[in-house]
Amino acid sequence: MATDTQRNFPFSSIDIDELVSVFYRLSDCIAIHEVDVDEWDAIVDTRVVWWNKHYEDIRTKKVEFAQSMMDSYFEPHIALAHVSEAWNSGHSLQLFQMDARTNGHYLHDGDASTSINWQRLGNHIVEVSSDLADFKEIQRLLNDQQTLVALAARKRAIAVERERIARNLHDVVIQNLYATSLSLSVAGRRKDPETQESFNKAISAIDEVISEIRREILHVESRKASPLRLHLEDVLIPVLHPTGTELELLIEVSELPEVIEGHIRAVAIEGASNAVRHGAASILKVQIARVERNIVLTITDNGRGIPSQVRLQNGLHNMRERAESLGGTMEIHSVQNIGTTVTWSVPCRGCLPTALLCTGCAS
After folding, report:
1. Is residue 177 domain-shared with residue 209, that is, in the same domain?
2. Of 7, 49, 198, 291, which is most buried, counting CB atoms within 10 Å of its CB?
3. Cα–Cα distance between 84 and 244 in angstroms, integer?
4. pTM for this one?
């Protein structure tokens, strides 16, 4: 297989490491071609100059540097037509059916529909092939995300409307009721005892209504979501919603510096993703609290636990690096089939605690 060195890679003006790292992370089949033209500048063939492992694995014959498309592709004239279109217009999309006819060229199980994107990049053509089933799944996930965004927006709109109603009840309705009660009290003094008693009962009823409205306002205020809570819900609900995992969110700080909040959102997303994808958790608890001079993020789940050999790999390693970059620490406590607790702690000056605990759950 061609290496990803500067010598063999065709894009001298592009950040090679970044581009190749992106290609290697993709599960698609990727190949980069150099075009062959005739004396009239018409494309007559291509030569592969770079490919990833997925591209190599799907082909029945060994892939070699400078391999001809005309000699190695099934229906190469069709592929070459798409190459020409991409060369002239920048892009071409080919829908390709792999079936019994293609067994001599590609490894596959039964029939499979594949989309092939031919993209011109500088003086080369990039070929990216992906299973349409994967594309449809991605499209479904995108649609789900759009639905979740709409639900989150609706939820936020309802919360704002409740707060507006609470303000109106306090600023307008209660004041009007007070005024009515005072008028009845003054008017009742000029009446006979029996009428005055009726007035007093009406005043007591109004006072009870005022008390009830106040209780409702306090309830709305206690449920009022802080910006930090809204930000966390916005990023965590899309991760947990497809699995039905319940979220318990407890926030014990009023606000955080922007840099710490950004890290907390990223760590919470990674922790939630690990809990549902690898741990199959049904409950995720996320708590943010101030402990002495530190801000402590605790992520607890009831999943399968984390095997010891993977505790410092990939996402978990990134979570720890984020803590250490702020002068903090991260600890992992995991018990098989019981669950995992990640304690992420960073120092923070000026982070104010609040007596109001924002609690609730969403799924």
Report:
1. yes
2. 49
3. 47
4. 0.42
